[in-house]
Design brief:
Strand order of the largest sheet of chain A: 6-7-8-3-9-10
CATH class of one domain in chain A: Alpha Beta
Mean pLDDT of chain B: 82
Number of domains of chain B: 2
Order of helices and strands of chain B: HHEEEEEEEEH
Number of helices of chain A: 10
Mean pLDDT of chain A: 86
Distance between the termini of chain B: 93 Å
Order of helices and strands of chain A: EEEHEEHEHHHEHEHEEHHH
Structural class of chain A: alpha/beta
Oligomer: heterotrimer
Low-confidence stretches of chain A: none
Largest interface: B-C, 30 and 33 residues
Distance between the termini of chain A: 62 Å
CATH superfamily of one domain in chain A: P-loop containing nucleotide triphosphate hydrolases
Low-confidence stretches of chain B: none
Structural class of chain B: alpha/beta
Number of strands of chain A: 10
Number of helices of chain B: 3
Shape of chain B: elongated
């Protein structure tokens, strides 16, 4: 039985339709990647799973519970077992690295301060930032901020963790570090991971299963190898990053020659 | 997590705010007077109280001995009934004391002034002052003056 | 013509919707306030950034406002030979009006705008969202402590403003203009009433603190999460707070001092 079961998901924001009948299964212990071009609502999907947004139609079940039928209290209980890594890290800027990681423990447990210290140092050690514990978030590089956020996301030993664009805007070294960390964390802590990304190579490296989203629908799903050999031209274009293909390079419109021959007077 | 110096400055801030309120209470306003208001009440009837108000001062030989506590209109003879709070330490005011309403300066506030009588008995809680002199209303005074002037001619 | 009416209608609906959201937001805040008494350290932190950091501005402004009042009032009073009433003039103006109103306006500019910017930034950097996902209610954890700190700080700031202003007025009146110090204080004591003047002034400042903090927090929480949106929200906080303070001041004054 999958940990997360999404059925017939419909969601729209204003007039723009974001999801139109999406079905996704996410299995325990696996790293599942949700990929797709920018603006396909990958982040929105994570917010729907976390219960921050409400779908127009369809259900999302996490660990057998329908997220959007829970009471506020039950939802908060469920969220304690979900970790989420935001694109920006979302560290609390007025707290040090140490206090950021300690934050969920202090909020949700009554552990003595000495035990919190041990736990925080353990989590920071796992992401390699134990000695950066007294820095403020503004003193961290983007990659370090994400690693701190990762330590914080696993502070309460959640059953699953959602990564929102973890690789965007990282230099190759911190990208490699993050790829490695996500993979290791998943195995070492028995997590279930959902990675939302459009960085094909890094994601394909660690994902067990990939869903490709576009135009509000699941276009293709399968293991990285299956996707690489997909017969769909669109999938090929996306996976290989080709500039032209089913998704045209040019914004649709009149032919270039016509435009040159019939100059419109623009004021 | 909690910075010690933050707590200290916050403590100082709150203390300064309370000190400021205390100053407003004791030095600026009349709260200090309320503390010795274990006095007694007497009633005086006036034909006209002019601009007298609740909490206007009541003085005797220029010394404040109390303040106006309440003003109401008697429905029997249409006079103003003024209840006066007298401070407890002024407990030797003769019963035949007279009360007049004066104005402090030309445009100042109106107040009640007591003129001591000669009785041996002293005013007690609930007593009524019979001898009263109403407030001078400027228009009436001017009117009378003009009237007598015209008659004289 | 129809277009103009329609856009007016749309504007009106937008205002109503914002008002509604603002009030729901207030209810959420208020439901979070009781829980703060078990975690008062959160409020102390905010008392520092909301109250203490505004105190210096309030102190200096109060001093100068009191000094100017004294200087101006003296020139008028001396014509009537009533310069002994200078103390009354200074104390009543400050305690009843200027203390709560001017410190409220300064508070909106200093603490209110800072609150909006802070909350707006926390929103745009996903900190509030992140807290929600950590199962921490940002309204209880972040907003409510700031709200309580604002409501506590404002009357203290207004009292400091009035007290320092009266001292400033005294310095100018006695030191510079030579008003008798005994007359200054005694006249002031006779005419300034604890309940009618001081307490009413305190009530005003509590109301202003409540409203300004509410507006500031709502603008931050409701801001478009971009740097431009946060900037606009900050401006709105100052403008709306100023309107609210001056409008409420009229209403409160009419209620409190309207009938003698």
């Amino acid at each position: 039985m999958p940990l997360i079961k999404i059925r017939d998901l419909h969601f729209s924001r204003g007039n723009s339709v974001i999801f139109e009948g999406v079905n996704i299964d996410i299995y325990r212990g696996k790293i599942t990647a949700i990929m797709g071009p920018s603006g396909t609502g990958k982040t929105t999907l994570l917010r729907l799973i976390g219960g921050q947004l409400r779908p127009d139609r369809g259900t999302i079940e996490v660990d057998g519970q329908n997220v959007h039928q829970l009471s506020r209290k039950e939802l908060y209980e469920l969220r304690k077992r979900m970790g989420m890594l935001f694109q920006s890290g979302a560290l609390l800027t007025d707290l040090t690295v140490f206090d950021n990681v300690a934050f969920p423990m202090r909020e949700h447990t009554k552990l003595p301060e000495s035990m919190i210290r041990d736990l925080v140092l353990m989590k920071l050690q796992a992401v390699g930032l134990r000695c950066a514990r007294d820095l403020m978030p503004s003193e961290l590089s983007g990659g370090m901020a994400r690693r701190v956020a990762l330590a914080r996301a696993v502070a309460l030993d959640p059953m699953m963790i959602m990564y929102d664009e973890p690789f965007t805007g990282q230099d190759p070294i911190s990208m490699g570090t993050l790829v490695n960390l996500i993979d290791r964390m998943n195995d070492a802590m028995g997590l279930t991971s959902i990675v939302v990304s459009h960085d094909v190579i890094e994601t394909a490296e660690i994902a067990n299963y990939i869903y490709l989203l576009s135009g509000g629908k699941v276009i293709e799903k399968g293991s990285p190898i299956q996707l690489k050999h997909s017969s769909s031209l669109w999938v090929q274009q996306f996976m290989q990053g080709l500039p032209d293909g089913p998704v045209p390079f040019h914004y649709p419109g009149d032919a270039f020659a016509d435009d040159l021959l019939n100059p419109e007077v623009t004021t | 997590m909690q910075n010690k110096s933050t707590e200290i400055t916050v403590g100082m801030f709150v203390a300064a705010g309370i000190a400021a309120l205390f100053m407003l209470a004791m030095k600026v306003s009349n709260l200090a007077e309320f503390t010795d208001e274990t006095g007694y009440q007497v009633i005086a009837e006036f034909e006209n109280i002019g601009g007298l108000k609740v909490r206007s001062p009541v003085t005797m030989a220029g010394v404040r001995v109390g303040r106006v506590a309440d003003i109401s209109l008697s429905s029997e003879n249409y006079t103003a009934q003024v209840t006066i709070n007298l401070y407890g330490k002024f407990d030797k005011i003769p019963t035949d004391t007279s009360a007049s309403i004066y104005t402090a300066g030309l445009l100042g506030e109106q107040y009640i002034s007591f003129e001591a009588g000669a009785e041996e008995e002293f005013l007690q809680n609930g007593d009524v002052i019979d001898l009263t002199q109403p407030a001078l209303v400027l228009e009436q005074v001017i009117g009378q003056f003009l009237f007598s002037k015209a008659e004289g001619e | 013509m129809i277009g103009a009416i329609r856009s007016l209608g749309r504007w009106g609906l937008g205002v109503l919707e914002r008002l509604g959201r603002g009030h729901l937001f207030l209810l959420q805040i208020l439901s979070g306030v009781p829980g703060l008494f078990t975690r008062f350290s959160l409020v102390i932190q905010q008392l520092y950034s909301v109250g203490v950091l505004s105190a210096f501005l309030i102190l200096i402004s109060g001093l100068f406002v009191g000094m100017v009042l004294s200087l101006q009032g003296y020139n008028t009073l001396v014509d009537f030979g009533a310069e002994e009433s200078l103390g009354v003039l200074v104390s009543l103006s400050l305690v009843r009006e200027l203390g709560p109103v001017v410190s409220g306006l300064l508070f909106a500019g200093r603490a209110g705008s800072a609150l909006t910017a802070e909350i707006g930034l926390m929103k745009s950097t996903e900190q509030l969202s992140g807290m929600e996902m950590m199962a921490v209610d940002p309204i209880r954890r972040v907003i409510a402590p700031r709200f309580l700190a604002g409501v506590i700080s404002m009357p203290l700031l207004a009292a400091i403003f009035s007290a320092v202003g009266i001292l400033g007025g005294f310095l100018v009146g006695h030191g510079l203009l030579g008003v008798d110090d005994g007359a200054f204080w005694s006249q002031m004591q006779v005419k300034t009433d604890w309940y009618d003047d001081v307490i009413n002034g305190v009530i005003k400042s509590v109301v202003f603190g409540f409203v300004v903090t509410w507006i500031a927090l709502f603008e931050g929480y409701d801001a478009t999460p971009t740097s431009e949106g946060v900037g606009r929200a900050t401006t709105r906080t100052v403008v709306h707070s100023a309107f609210a303070i001056l409008g409420l001041d009229f209403v409160l004054t009419a209620l409190m001092f309207g009938e003698e």
